[in-house]
Structures are given as C-alpha cells and as structure tokens.
Amino acid sequence: MSSNGMSETCACIQADAKPEEMESFNLLSAIPNQRIYRCSNCNAFLAYTEKTQEWEVLLQGDLETEIKTLYRPEPSDVTFE
Questions:
Q1: What are phi and psi of 2, to 5 degrees?
Q2: Is 80 part of a structural domain of the chain?
Q3: The pLDDT value given to residue 75
Q4: Is 63 left (phi over 0), alpha (psi -120 to 50) or beta?
Q5: Looking at the domain assignment, is residue 32 inside a domain?
Q6: Which stretches within the chain are classed as H helix?
Q7: How far apart are CA 71 and CA 65, in angstroms?
Q8: Rg of the chain's alpha carbons, rounded to an integer?
Q9: How many domains does the chain have?
C-alpha cells in the first residue's frame, strides 16, 4: 500500500485487497485507471489505482486531527529568539 504522505494507513484495507472485495467502501468517483472511495467504517477517503493495483489514503477519517498535524508545527520545530 502506498501513501501520499498525509496518512500512513487505513486499518480497513488489506495490502492485497481489490475494491470489489471491500464491502465497507462506497465508490465516489471513477476516472480511467483510478477510483475514489470513502470507507464507511473509518470515514477515510481512498484512491485505488488499477494500473499498479495499489491503495492510497487521500484523507484519513479524523479530519480535525489530520488538519492539526499538517498545519500545527511540533513544539520542537518552533524556535523563539
């Protein structure tokens, strides 16, 4: 399974699972070679690339935590002068 750096995993995906095997996934969009799903268990948004047969977590289910992680620096990253 790959990741775009925003989220590392979705517990609902098995590494070798195909979209049609995932009962909890709702298809949101389909374009050539890629489909976008929303997991009804954890509310994550996921992409499945047919060519490489890989899942990518686009947005994790807990949006508030993800936004805070992306935009709030770690305390060790902040320097005061």
A1: -105, 170
A2: no
A3: 63
A4: alpha
A5: yes
A6: 63-71
A7: 10
A8: 15
A9: 1
> Is 20 contained in some domain?
yes
- Please tell me the distance from the alpha carbon of residue 56 to that of residue 75, in angstroms, as a whole number: 29
Per-residue pLDDT of the chain (81 residues; tens, 9 = 90+): 344 443 455 667 765 667 777 788 889 999 999 999 988 888 888 889 989 888 888 877 676 776 777 777 666 655 555
Question: Using H for helix, E for strand and C for coil, what is the string for 30-74?
Answer: EECCEEEEEECCCCCEEEEECCCCEEEEEECCCHHHHHHHHHCCC
Residue 78 lies in a domain: no
Q: What is the pTM of this model?
A: 0.62
Residues of the domain holding 29? 2-71
First to last CA, the chain: 42
Instruction: Please report the pLDDT score of residue 1 as a whole number.
Output: 37
